[in-house]
Amino acid sequence: MTVALEHVLAKAGLRVDPTEFLELVEEAARRLSPANPDPADYFSADQREALTDVGLDLTPRRPDEVDSRARAVAAQAVLRDSALTVAAAAEAVGVDTSRIRHRLAAGRLAGWKDRGGWRLPAWQFAPSGVLPGLEAVLAAVPDDQPPLVVAAFMTTPQPDLRIDEEPATPRQWLLAGGSPTRVAALASALGTPA
Prior knowledge:
This protein is mostly helical. The protein is about 50% helix and about 10% strand.
């Protein structure tokens, strides 16, 4: 298992010890909802009736079903493992650590406080520093959106952003010189029903 996990981590470009990575996965799993939640418990009787009337299945997960939380746990672990410290971000951007903290406080960089200090998702950095147009995009992201949602948005191809007729991720779009206004418009809708 460890050799296979080492291979997967290396292939993904994640420089982390497999044991440490598994600890990140375990920690992310603990932060999620209970292991076997009953979906019906989250709704009132009237809400349950309305939801089942439109065809929503509120039965608990069967023991043989794949746990839908697994993908979220893996994504959270990768996000945390690939995130930069303030010092690493300062080095990547070529500024002092105080400037990175100032940008975090002003919402010009995304990050979260973790054990040992701030962590900044790697998707927002480019080879030449900060992702072009990042400030405009972050300003448009609703305040209630967690880092994992923003990371998923920035790294998932969007049909409205095309490079050579192919859907591009917002990150790819911005790196290619695309308008940050288009990405900001999409980002502003995060968390709203489709």
